[in-house]
Task: structure prediction
Amino acid sequence: MKTALITGITGQDGSYLAELLLDFNYKVIGCYRRSSTNTLGRIQHLLNNPNFNLEEFDITDPSGCNSIISTHKPQEVYNLAAQSHVGTSFKQPSTTFEIDTVGVINLLEAIVHFSSSSKFYQASTSEMFGSNYAIDSDGTKYQDENTELLPQSPYGIAKLASHRMVQIYREAYNIFGCCGILFNHESSRRGENFVTRKITKYIGLLVNHKISEPLKLGNLQASRDWGHAKDYVKAMHLMLQQDMPEDYVICTGQTYTVENFLQKAFSVVNLNYMDHIQIDPALYRPAEVDYLKGRNTKAISNLNWSPEISFNDLVEEMVLSDIQLTSSVAYV
Result:
């Protein structure tokens, strides 16, 4: 039985990855940060699994990283812990850097000194590309593993620093470390401060007659390559099953605007989104990434991975889930 350690276990990706690894008969050590409120909602159904263990943990504490790695010596480490909201990173840049960069260094150091055979996965992000892209012969814009990284947010910069750090430790200490450059991935477990979930939660409240004011949004023309988190955690696992550590772009290869997402989401309940939204200039980011569309050729070739859940199915799943969730009076 392999042991896998997952930081950020209480998040969307952590919960789906834990389910996947338990299905593969792993022992899973889920690391979570202490909070005064219950943050275990996404993994509540896993708590009684005998192969699943929770440990209190803070990635910004070097001694804690050393302790958890030296105690468990896991075959695989998946670092999903992060301050992952781009907008918040502009308001809390130092905290973002401490968690998303210094925290990664803490884990890498612990692996080098206490469990050098552990395979390490780092959650990188398409936000590292910023507004940069390559152009195909037919004029199609895209980003892949060879596209220059030019982040435009404190979050993107922090993630790029940790991305490079994994590459340095891979070369300097010969550890098995790889990065998944994941494009936007959503699900019904997505945090409510992200625009996709903000939209679907609003629709749930609207359908259940629990809200009357309009939905306030910022830039509707930002284009994103949206996939399903359940598909993307499969790619994370596949990366650590390879003979050699490499970095991969994980994406669908399709792009949609926020407005496209709105149209699809409201069409699920036969409503016109234009009757229910209000543009709020305060929600525009200081520096916006306008266009993200990945190319997953390397992942298809080397990992035999490709996304299975379509954009339309993803949006419909999220809307229907939030309609059911917001039907509860206790939720509002």
